[in-house]
Amino acid sequence: HDLRKAYHWMNKAAAQKYPNADKGILMIQQEAKRSGLTLAELSKDTTAQDSTPRNPTDPATEPTFGAATVGTRGAVVRLSKPTSNAITKLSSGTPIKVISTRDKWSQVHIPVDINVWVFGTLISQNGDTARIVGEGVRARTRPSTQGGSSVIGNFEKGEYVRVLSTSGDWVRVTAPRTMRAWILSSQLEIHPSVTDQWLSQWQSAAARPDSGETAENTAIDISPSSASGQTSALFRAALITQANARVLSRPDTGGAVIALLDSNTPIKIIGSKGNWKMIQSPNGLDVWVWGKFVDERGATATINRNRVRIRSRPSTAETSDVLGALDSGTKVTVVGHKGDWARLRIFGAVSGWIDSSQVMILPTVSDDWRARWASAQALATR
Length: 382
Known about the structure:
Strand order of the largest sheet: 14-1-4-5-13-2-3-16
Radius of gyration: 22 Å
Low-confidence stretches: 46-63, 208-220, 223-233
Number of helices: 5
Number of domains: 4
């Protein structure tokens, strides 16, 4: 009974993006397994003092999830239902929670808030927070009821939201907590388990200003479009400030060095933890896979099996972090060998960590920064 109660409240904490809640869920699941308690039994709500009816679409009541990251080409997110034309696009490497699958679609949670618009008279505002005062208040993609503004969900009366900005009589707020998001399963890299590395990525991407960590990316806007649109800026543009800056496999000095970056190299900051920044580099990151899973033919190489683990060192020891996975058919660049291991240069599929003192965060994603990124990436992939 105690495990069930803890599990219930830990899921509520995770839905509100409290730090380390996901790790707590994983620990409770492991303890329940040792105790002979099934996931269905664990998920049964025995919390007597919580008389709120359970809503199957409420993230707080969902018992479990699968770990995933966005694949190398990014992923289009459709809101409310798979056929919706309200979309955004997530960049490669973004951590994703897979809640369920339907045909070729995955219902997911993404680690950032989604911004929507509501009519101002339907909320009661107090500073940067507000309470929904109407029944079935519509969440829209634009501050209008005219063409091009899609309804993508409804708020519950009494639901609290964060206020972000205003436009005339309209207010931009965080989306309804029952909002569903869908991604084509083929655009995701599904992880075999929920690892500490993945949890660290999720917590960094989902961090809020009041969580004790720096929120590099706290929300995204959506666009009502049937095309793929522009990739959401789920990163902060930055430059390396020191020569031979070390990129590590995890946010501590014991991590493996997976890249060395020159001063003024453009980077994307996609999360943070303490004094560390989670980054992506236009030059790629050097990682390891078991050599028999790589078919090398001259200058080209291809992964020959699904779910091949990407590691930080040529070893399966505890010091070798699992950074992600590659599926069959993925083209890779082999830059070296050590024993039975192949060293690969990976672009986008994995992220690294760098000390905050070695980076300068820019105020905007400027055209100059974009040009630097494109140039560096072109040189690295030619």
